[in-house]
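Throughout our pipeline, every protein is held as a single compact record rather than as scattered files. The remainder of this section carries one protein's record, kept here as part of the documentation.

===
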Amino acid sequence: MDEQIKNIIINSLKGLEIRNIILFGSRARGDFNDNSDYDILVILADDLERKRIVEIKSLIRKRLADVNIAADILIGSDSYINNEKNQIGSIFRYAFEEGKIL
């Protein structure tokens, strides 16, 4: 399943440089149930406009839903996420602490 998710994301981001794709939350920790979705952080090399990020997230969610995978997608640039990941309470911090790279 993880490989399928990774491939869908990569195919949705053609033309953009992906630094990392991280699965985090209950699916990464192993304490998920049948109703758990996938929490995914996509780290890109470059900043994108907010509108473009929304479009990409929508595309990825749709493609994942087409294969019955429910997911919450976070997308950010390497520089932005590196600035945020050490902040207490930051979702990015949790992604790095408990996540696994796809």
Q: What stands out?
A: The chain has five helices and four strands. The beta strands are 18-24, 38-44, 71-77, 100-101. The mean pLDDT is 95. The radius of gyration is 13 Å.
